[in-house]
C-alpha cells in the first residue's frame, strides 16, 4: 500500500477515504501482511480508528475517526442507524419494479464460513433500491441499506433473483466481458479479451453523518471499472 490512498474529506476528528476495490478493510485472519486499511490508518494516518468496514471487493467511501471520543460517537451513530450510506451496483437482469424495499432477515449460513443467507430467524435487515438506468440484461441501481448486516446488499439482491454482477458468493462470480454484451464481437488473432468488470460491482458512493453539531456529507466518484462497464452497456447493452 502506498501513501496515495485518496482522502475524500478530513477535519480534526475524522476522515473519509476512498477504499479501492480489492483491498481489505481489516487484516486478513490468516495473513496479517496483506495490505489493509486498518494497517494503513495506523502507519500513515497517525493512528486513525476504523468506524465501519467495506467488503474487500467493494470500493468507495470509508469513515475513520482520529480520536477515541469521535470513534465512539460515530460508532454509536452507526448502531442507531443515523449514518446515511448510499451505494451503486450493477445487477443481473432487470427488477420488476424500478424502486422498492427489501425486508428480509439475514443470518450466517451454517455450512459455510463467511457466507450469509436469508432467514426468518435472522437479524432484521432493510435495503431500499431505485433504478438509475436499465439495459437489456442488466440494471444500474442506487441502494440505501437502512441496517448494516454483513453482505446485506449482496444477499438482498440475490434474494430478489438479481445478484450483483461478478459476485463470487451470491452470484456466478464470472467476470463481465464485452463479448457477452456486444453482438458479433471478434478478437484479433492472438488477442486475449480483458474483462470490463472482474469484481463485485458494488461501490459506496455517499456518506452522511453528524459530528460536533455539524452535518457532513461526502460523495465518492464512480471508479474507473464502473465507468468503463457503464459506457459499454450504454453503447451495446
What are the key terms here?
globular, 10-stranded mixed sheet, alpha+beta, two-stranded antiparallel sheet, 12 strands, 237 residues, single chain, Pseudouridine synthase
Mean pLDDT equals 92
CATH architecture: 2-Layer Sandwich
Tally of domains: 1
Structural class: alpha+beta
**Major sheet: size, sense and barrel closure?**
10 strands, mixed
Oligomeric form: single chain
Structure annotation, total helices: 4
| Order of H and E elements | EEHEEHEEEEEEHEEH
Taking the alpha carbons of the first and last residues, their distance comes to 36 Å
Q: Could you tell me the number of beta strands?
A: 12
**Shape category:** globular
- Percent helix among the residues? 10-25%
Please identify the top-level CATH class. Answer: Alpha Beta
**Strand content bin:** 25-35%
**What is the gyration radius calculated from CA atoms?**
19 Å
CATH topology: Pseudouridine synthase
- The CATH superfamily is Pseudouridine synthase
Low-confidence stretches are none
Amino acid at each position: 500500500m502506498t501513501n496515495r490512498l485518496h482522502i475524500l474529506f478530513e477535519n480534526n476528528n475524522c476522515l473519509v477515504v476512498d477504499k479501492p476495490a480489492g483491498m481489505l478493510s481489516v487484516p486478513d485472519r490468516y495473513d496479517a501482511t496483506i495490505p489493509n486499511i486498518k494497517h494503513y490508518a495506523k502507519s500513515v494516518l497517525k493512528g486513525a480508528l476504523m468506524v465501519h468496514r467495506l467488503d474487500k471487493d467493494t470500493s468507495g467511501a470509508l469513515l475513520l475517526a482520529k480520536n477515541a471520543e469521535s470513534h465512539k460517537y460515530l460508532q454509536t451513530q452507526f448502531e442507531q442507524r443515523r449514518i446515511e450510506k448510499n451505494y451503486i451496483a450493477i445487477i443481473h437482469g432487470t427488477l420488476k419494479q424500478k424502486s422498492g424495499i427489501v425486508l428480509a432477515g439475514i443470518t450466517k449460513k451454517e455450512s459455510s464460513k463467511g457466507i450469509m443467507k436469508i432467514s426468518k430467524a435472522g437479524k432484521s435487515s432493510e435495503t431500499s433500491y431505485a433504478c438509475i438506468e436499465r439495459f437489456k440484461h442488466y440494471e444500474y441501481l442506487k441502494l440505501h441499506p437502512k441496517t448494516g448486516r454483513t453482505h446485506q446488499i449482496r444477499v438482498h439482491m440475490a434474494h430478489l433473483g438479481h445478484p450483483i454482477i461478478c459476485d463470487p458468493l451470491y452470484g456466478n462470480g464470472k467476470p463481465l466481458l464485452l463479448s457477452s454484451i456486444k453482438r458479433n464481437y471478434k478478437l484479433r488473432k492472438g488477442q486475449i479479451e480483458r474483462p470490463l468488470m472482474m469484481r463485485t460491482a458494488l461501490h459506496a458512493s455517499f456518506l452522511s453523518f453528524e459530528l460536533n453539531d455539524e452535518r457532513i456529507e461526502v460523495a465518492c466518484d464512480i471508479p474507473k471499472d464502473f465507468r468503463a462497464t457503464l459506457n459499454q452497456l450504454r453503447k451495446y447493452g
